[in-house]
Each structure stands twice: as C-alpha cells, then as structure tokens.
Amino acid sequence: FQSCNLDTGHSPEPSWVGGMMSGKNLLLKVILLGDGGVGKSSLMNRYVTDRFDSQSFHTIGVEFLNRDLEVDGRLVTLQIWDTAGQERFKSLRTPFYRGADCCLLTFAVNNLQSFQNLGSWKKEFMYYSDVKDPERFPFVVLGNKIDMEQREVGEDEARAWCEENGCCPYFETSAKDDTNVTAAFEAAVREVLAAEDQIDHALLSSTIDLHGNRKTSRRSCC
Ligand SMILES: Nc1nc2c(ncn2[C@@H]2O[C@H](COP(=O)(O)OP(=O)(O)OP(=O)(O)O)[C@@H](O)[C@H]2O)c(=O)[nH]1
Ligand SMILES: [Mg+2]
C-alpha cells in the first residue's frame, strides 16, 4: 500500500462521480469523518494493514492509505483519507474534502455525542467538498466499537437516522475485532459505482431523448 501524511497543500480536483483511472484501476477517494476518538484511524489501519493499536494517537491534519480491491469484477484502488476529528484541527482537514467520491460518517456506539454530531459532520462535508450533485452524493454511516459493552446508541436508532437522512447504508463495526470493516469499505465502493451507473444511465437517456425531457432517476441519499 501507499501512504501519505499531509498537513498542508492542495487537494486534487474533484473526481466525483466515478473517480479517476490509476493504471488499470479506478481510483476512488473515500473520506472518513467523525468526532475525535471514534476510531477512524483504527478502521483505516485495520482495513489496509490488518493491525489494531489500542493506544493510537489523535490524528493531526489528514493521512491517507491506498488499498487495491476487486468489487463486482471491477479493479479499484481505494484511497482512504483519514481526517482529524478534533475541533481544533478543522482548518487542517476541510481543504481535503474536495474530490471525495464517498464520505464515511463515523461515530462510536458507546458515545452518544459522537452520534448526535453526525449531522454536523455531514453539513461540514457538504460545505467544504463543493460536490456537484448533493442529493445523489454517496454516504455510508459506520457505528464503530461494537465490541464495547456499554452502548449509548442502539442499532435501530442509528438505522432510523440513516433513513431520515436519506437511505445511506449503515454498518456496525469493530476495528478492534475486525467486524464488518471490509464490508463497510466495499459498500462505499459499491455506492460510488452505483452512483456512476446512474449518471451513465441519465446521460444515455438525455442523449436519446430528442424532446429534451431528460429523465434522471433521482436517488436521494443522506
Ligand atoms: N474497543 C475498541 N476500541 C477502539 C475501536 N476502534 C478504535 N478504538 C480505540 O479508540 C481510540 C481512538 O481511536 P482512533 O482510531 O485514534 O480514533 P480517531 O477517530 O482516529 O480519532 P482522531 O484522530 O482524534 O479523529 C484508540 O485508543 C483506539 O484503540 C474499536 O472498534 N473497539
Ligand atoms: Mg485518527
């Protein structure tokens, strides 16, 4: 895998929808957002290096790791951008939202506040990412630390939030026990590919509709 630690600099131009090509692979940028300490870095490290550190440091700025995978017969390089969740690092993380293909909104199931903050994270992402079609932008929600005994957020409550906010897939994960981590990142890829297929379909519809009645199958997401 490749890695990079970036505290300053410019993000690449937006690639959504559908990412860019990296060799034979489609390069997709996904970004992890959520409160400090919910386990964003741990999820990324579990997925890319299959390691877990019970005493990790808070992230400063952003870091990314790449992992190649195959989803439904397509070769993809997933570029996972891990951001600093602490409020004091806001100005270091927001410049990197542009160009994301999917946003993983993360909370910890044993931390109610982190769940209640999901809406602000979504808002912050929408504000700084400047996505072209906000209604169709793919999100995935992750409820992490399900290995912890004391839960403050129930699965039903989390699923209800996803529905109210427009149907994003929800995964209950544990970076520690490696529960659902691969499934969550693969779901992110599928969300992007599905959005891309919809755009292709919409473009095709508008090309063949001589009356100019462009039919787009709208899909709202959270
Ligand atoms: N029990 C348990 N602990 C976890 C899990 N994921 C992360 N942790 C622990 O929670 C703490 C914070 O994890 P990080 O991955 O650093 O959290 P973060 O979201 O990256 O935090 P910031 O970088 O400050 O935004 C660390 O001590 C991790 O070991 C998990 O699934 N289960
Ligand atoms: Mg971190």
How far apart are the first and last residues' alpha carbons, in Å? 31 Å
Summing up helix and strand content along with how strands pair, one would put the structural category as alpha/beta
Shape: globular
Query: How many distinct domains?
Result: 1
Q: Return residue spans where pLDDT drops below 50 for at least 5 consecutive residues.
A: 4-17, 214-221
**What CATH architecture would you give?**
3-Layer(aba) Sandwich
Percent helix range: 25-40%
Looking at CATH, the homologous superfamily is P-loop containing nucleotide triphosphate hydrolases
Largest sheet: 8 strands, mixed
Characterise the protein shown here.
- The protein is α/β, with parallel strands linked by helices and 222 residues long.
- It has one domain (24-202): P-loop containing nucleotide triphosphate hydrolases (Rossmann fold).
- The chain has 6 helices and 8 strands; from the N terminus they run E-E-E-H-E-E-H-E-H-H-E-H-E-H.
- It has helices spanning 40-49, 90-93, 112-116, 118-129, 155-164, 181-208; strands spanning 3-6, 20-22, 25-33, 62-71, 74-83, 102-108, 139-144, 170-172.
- Strands 1, 2, 3, 4, 5, 6, 7 and 8 form an 8-stranded mixed beta sheet that branches.
- The protein is globular.
- 40% of the residues are buried.
- The structure holds guanosine-5'-triphosphate and magnesium ion.
